[in-house]
Design brief:
The chain is an alpha/beta fold. α1 runs antiparallel to α7. It is globular and about 65 Å long. The two termini are about 25 Å apart. It binds 4'-deoxy-4'-aminopyridoxal-5'-phosphate (PMP).
Length: about 375
């Protein structure tokens, strides 16, 4: 088997799973309980929160545990919009965001009377900073721009956007860093809200974080017992939270080595695919090496299925929307044709992939393309 769909999800790290099993068995008490068992659980949970704070260079009270990046994105975007709507109802995002951001903006626009500017991207899938600057208004309260795009791997200049926004203290800056944290070096020190997800980093599905700077307030999306500083009520998923701290630590400790390894896989794949007739790349040359998106002249779903029958797993579009519709608005926003936007293939790497797998993949892809009419 060759698994090249790591942007959709990654296999769980064995040591994360081992400590999870340990935790579930030993510490089952509710961290909100005030008896000894509950207090013990709280203590370990707080150690995990402190560790995440150190790893992310933030304060422990800026760490909000969530059920994943979808929830983090919704909490950040709707939470800011609802909290600060008296200051203004203009919000800004881009045309290439993950559905959990894009649809949150659509919801605010269609159901709550917010005005949204959707910033376009250039042919490399990177947002147009000049348009962003021109879109800022007196009543703008939020800008949300993803760090690394999940379909093509384009990298936005988050530090530059933060420095543009520093002249506008009324604007909160959120980034969906799901495909970036633990993979690519980005300085988030001037970003107000950062979303991430554990399962892209060999952690658990249904586990994520929202880092929220102290200066920012949010309207919580669910009312309840006031856990997570009142921003995310509901009994804490203690074993997931502690596992997330470990997942993040392992990812950050090995980020540099993994990057070097994955970049070699990426470069070799680009070289091999460039030699196959009819292949064009959608990922820019300087994309995140974890994601490579390309088109063949054949129908992507047929190519994907043929590879799958040979035990090679790749993606058409991103997993979140690929079952519904093959058309990629991300690739269309980059100025590509309708055929290209409907027939892209994404391969995405992780640390355990090898050069041999890349060679095997390229050989099989070439054969498959020759066999498909
Ligand atoms: N944002 C991006 C960029 C993603 O790639 C994903 C996962 N496909 C998400 C958000 C949603 O993450 P989760 O599965 O943790 O809800």
């Amino acid at each position: 088997m060759i698994y090249f769909d790591n942007a959709a999800t990654t296999p769980i790290d064995k040591s994360v799973l081992a400590s999870f099993n340990d935790l579930v068995n030993k510490y089952f008490a509710n961290p909100s309980s005030s008896h000894k068992l509950g207090l013990e659980t709280t203590k370990i949970e707080e150690m995990a929160r402190n560790q995440i704070a150190r790893l992310m260079s933030c304060l422990p009270e800026e760490v909000i545990f969530t059920s994943g990046a979808t929830e983090s994105n919704n909490l950040a975007i709707k939470g800011v919009a609802f909290k600060y709507q008296n200051r203004g109802k203009h919000i800004i995002t881009s045309t290439i965001e993950h559905p959990s951001v894009y649809n949150a903006f659509k919801c605010l626009e269609n159901d709550f009377g917010f005005q949204v500017s959707y910033i376009p991207v250039d042919s490399n899938g990177v947002i147009e900073l000049d348009v962003l600057k021109k879109s800022i208004r007196e009543d703008t309260i939020l800008v949300s721009i993803m760090s690394v795009n999940n379909e093509v791997g384009s990298i936005n200049n988050i530090e530059e956007i933060a420095s543009i926004l520093k002249d506008y203290p009324k604007i909160m800056f959120h980034t969906d860093a799901t495909q970036a944290i633990g993979k690519i070096d980005i300085n988030y020190s001037k970003v107000d809200l950062i979303s991430m997800s554990a399962h892209k980093l060999h952690g658990f599905k249904g586990s994520g974080l929202l880092i929220k700077r102290k200066r920012v307030d949010l309207m919580p999306l669910s009312s309840g017992g006031g856990q997570e500083f009142g921003y995310r009520s509901g009994t804490n998923n203690f074993p997931y939270e502690v596992s997330l701290a470990k997942t993040l630590r392992l990812a950050l400790e090995s980020q540099k080595d993994n990057y070097i390894h994955v970049k070699k896989l990426y470069d070799r794949t680009r070289t091999l695919l460039a030699q196959i007739d009819g292949i064009t790349f959608n990922s820019p040359i300087d994309s995140s090496p974890y994601i490579l998106n390309f088109c063949t002249k054949k129908k992507a779903s047929v190519v994907q299925e043929a590879l799958s029958l040979r035990g090679i797993f790749v993606s058409t579009k991103s997993a979140c929307s690929s079952k519904k519709n093959a058309y990629s608005s991300v690739i269309a926003s980059m100025g590509k044709s309708t055929f290209e936007a409907s027939n892209s293939i994404r391969i995405s790497f992780a640390r355990e992939n090898t050069i041999e797998e890349v060679e095997e993949f390229a050989k099989n892809l070439k054969e498959v393309l020759q066999l498909i009419k």
